[in-house]
Amino acid sequence: MPPSIMNIAGRLLRYLENGLPLQIGDLSLVDSSQFSAFQKSVYEAALKIPHGETRTYSWIAMRTGSPLAMRAVGQALKKNPIPILIPCHRVVSMKNIGGFMGMTDPSGREVELKRKLIGIENDYLNPYFPFMEGFIATSAA
User: Fold this and answer.
1) CA atoms of 3 and 103, how far apart (whole Å)
2) Helices in the chain by DSSP H: which ranges?
3) Domain count, the chain
């Protein structure tokens, strides 16, 4: 396997096991000539969402210069050739978690995977420390 693929595979493994940020940064992993200008702007905006955070479809639409194109954003994300690397799981609806990989059934495997990916990132940023259970910080009087 080429070194770049091995590098990405290693990063993905660390992401899935420990929630470590992937830090892809740009679209150089894919042949972006296959994307429309709108798709490219959607994917670039998704790459700017910080690890462990989410943004709405309307947030992405604003960054593409088409503030009313929320549905078009969803359609572009549906065609994302490398989910997780282009973090479309971080894009949510204003009302709910939204769809993932073209599927919108809240009990479907795809949306469940989206929940898990968001959870992995949240756990990385907010680790659980069992020894802290019941601890209440008090201020000195």
Assistant:
1) 33
2) 3-18, 37-47, 57-64, 70-78, 109-125
3) 1
Q: In one letter, which amino acid is 27?
A: L
Does some domain include residue 94? Answer: yes
Catalytic residue annotation: 88
pLDDT 10s digits, 3-19: 688 889 999 999 999 99
Residue 39 in any domain: the answer is yes
**CATH code assigned at 29:** 1.10.10.10
**Residue ranges making up the domain that contains 67:** 9-125
pTM value is 0.85
Q: Each residue of 54-101: pLDDT tens digit?
A: 999 999 999 999 999 999 999 999 999 999 999 999 999 999 999 999
